[in-house]
Amino acid sequence: RHVIEPRFTPILVTVADMITDVYQPVVGQSALVDKQFLRLQEAIGKEIDYQEELLEVLGMMDVLFAALTKKKASSLEENKSNGLTKILEQDMSH
Q1: In the predicted model, is pLDDT for residue 74 greater than 80?
Q2: What is the pLDDT of residues 7-47, one digit of tens each?
Q3: Helix, strand and coil percent figures for the chain, each rounded to 5
Q4: What is the pLDDT of residues 52-73, one digit of tens each?
Q5: Is 46 within a domain?
Q6: What's the predicted TM-score (pTM) here?
Q7: Rounded to whole angstroms, how far apart are CA atoms 11 and 42?
Q8: Residue 1 lies in a domain
Q9: Cα dihedral sign, 43-46-51-57
Q10: Which residue spans adopt a coiled-coil conformation according to this UniProt entry (predicted)?
Q11: Which of 4, 11, 67, 83 is the most buried (most CB within 10 A)?
């Protein structure tokens, strides 16, 4: 259950891999071992789904930030060109 806890994940993934190697020969022979592997598979499956959803949200946020940045940059460029145009117009009228 703590495999999905971010601060424990690196070490617990290694431990889960070692446990899988140790108990692989008895998979299918012990209901208890099989049940625990199913629980581990379920927890990892849920975490994968969660991470995929997070990546989708991050992708959406990237698009929004890129659009906002582009809009802000173009707005700044408009203001700069308008300011320059006004200065040039003032200089020409003198």
Answers
A1: no
A2: 877 888 888 889 888 988 888 998 988 998 898 888 888 88
A3: 90, 0, 10
A4: 999 999 999 999 888 888 777 7
A5: yes
A6: 0.57
A7: 19
A8: no
A9: negative
A10: none
A11: 4
- Indicate the number of domains in the chain: 1
Yes or no: say if 25 and 31 are a contact pair by the CB < 8 Å rule. Answer: no
Stated length of the chain: 94
Q: Two tokens at 15?
A: 């431990």
| 47/55 Cα distance (integer angstroms) | 12
Residue given tokens 């959406």 in the structure block: 60
**Structural contact between residues 12 and 3, judged by C-beta atoms closer than 8 angstroms:** yes
Tokens matching residue 17:
């891999």
Q: Is residue 56 part of a domain?
A: yes
